[in-house]
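Handout, section 4.2: multi-component inputs.
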Amino acid sequence: MLKMTHLQKVYQTHLIETHALRDFSIHVREGEFVAVTGPSGSGKTTFLNIAGLLEEFTGGEYLLDGVDVSGLNDNARSKLRNEKIGFIFQSFNLIPDLNLFDNVDVPLRYRGFAAADRKKRIEESLTRVGLSSRMKHYPSELSGGQQQRVAIARALAGSPRLLLADEPTGNLDSLMARGVLELLEEINRQGTTIVMVTHDPELAARAQRNVHVIDGQVTDFDDVPRLREAHSGGGSHASEDRFASASNSQ
Amino acid sequence: MFTYYLQLGMRSLRRNPILTALMVVGIGLGIAASMTTLTVMHLMGSDPIPWKSDKLHYVQLDNWSADEAYYDDGRPPDQVTYRDAVALMEAGKADKQAAMFKLALPFQPDNKDLKPFRALGRVTYTDFFGMFEPPFRYGAPWSKAQDAAHERVIVLGKDLNEKLFGGQDSVGKSVRMDDIDYTVVGVLDDWNLRSRYYDLTNGPFEDPDEFFMPFTTAIDLKQRSTGNNSCWKSPGDGWDSYLDSDCVWMQMWVQLDSPQRLAEYASFLDSYVGEQKKLGRFPRPLNNRLLDVNEWIADQEVVSSDVQVQTGLAFAFLIVCLVNTVGLLLAKFTRKSGEIGLRRALGASRRDVFSQFLIESGVVGLSGGILGLALTGLGLLGVRSLYSSLKTVTQLDWTMIGVTIALAVVSAILAGLYPTWRACRVQPAAQLKI
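Output:
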């Protein structure tokens, strides 16, 4: 799904050359749920920007769903981004003067779907995140957890094959965070590849694979299954209950 | 997507009402200043009779002194002499022809409630009505036979008929002017002339003529023009000497229905002047002119240089307003950098962002245009109250309404180009923490 080979990203000014990514290689397979961890300044955000085609790289190769993205012009990159990638932001990034329906509609507009198709997709996405009854509400009328679910609905509406999430629970309390995480897990179970940046070891442990980034380079963890077992410990039902209660309470 | 961007533009106006108000008022003021002066200039210089302005020609003959041209630039006199006007009328070489002059006469109403009053009218031939096409409410022009018979008939303007006969059909009734009775043969309806283009020599924006009477009759009665009269040598004493003199005091129009007829008439004029030279007149080189309506309006500088300067200044003001709008749009779009980054992340290309923000600029312009239209209306009312003579050229027609809106939208889009370009350059990664 996502394959970066010997990727380089150098920020250059007149005086300083900063290597944000160096010899960065990663291969995320279709259907994987990968957590990217690492200290601040390690290059996680740069990796996600490049993976999301929001930033260009200075060397190496990046294949997104088999497409070599280097050399694509802005239109082609935008189209690829719109069709293949969904974004989930830490701070939700909903447009405040659009209601939920219109917020979810934004990527679909750029996709050029017909009105009826857009409406169907929006309603399905909002239903999937449990907010179908709030389509005409504005973001300011929702809690943080609900706003993040709207952002997830927006990311899902275009049926992307890859979800990129940066600290998706970073602005949520633990109850809401768990609900959002379980939603992501469910999305992943239905086939969507997810790459999630997080500082939270508990969240990282829920991923199928951890990628640790230090100084712009990758380290793969092999002990994630063990960590996952340690954190789940038969608690998946409890988590679902918590998500349900979070939904009801909002 | 256009409709979508339009909706976003409208929504964006509501999001920052103060910023929006500043931009809309700025554009509205600039547009109003420009359009007020441009409307006056447009109407002053516009074609008053577009369906035949290329067929109506104003006749100029250079009968002036050998020692000194009428105009420094060599142009012939603006008017013709009585003897030339009559000679051209009698020759009848044009498809239609009308010599004319301005006349003021005292009216003595039968209605004792009305005091005698002075009215301004026009002395001309019956072809005048066929050439300039004033609409008739009652009756019709007098006939060629009545011209030839020097009959005492009159056509009243609508306002004068209202004053004398309460707006009733007065055809066949009699009016008394300067102790002489005239029979009304026709009454005009509203004649919305932007300028009295058939007599620019006596002021293009004077009040409309209140009555029309036959040329032959007025000459019989020895009525002198109350318009401009220019002589390069003494006309001598007495009425007949005056008529025979080289004083110019008449306007001469001809209708020539084809380029061939125009060429033939120009040739005829040359021949006529050649004949007159043999009689000792026309000492200057051949210098006849036949200008059509629009050429005559341009020649007479109906759109004065003052109006042109004012229009230029108003457009300079519009530019200042647009520079201000550039700054405000820049501030507005900069505040939307986060949304731009988000839209880019969600699949908007630079072209999409460019379209969205350019249309948003256009929506600002449209709002400014609507305000500008209202202010232009007020501006024209102000001009009309200050200069009553300009009332015919201080009206918004559909063309100018369209131009006002189009100018506002185009201006705002131009003002929005740089801020929009900046918006397109926003790096989404710098705006989003993903």
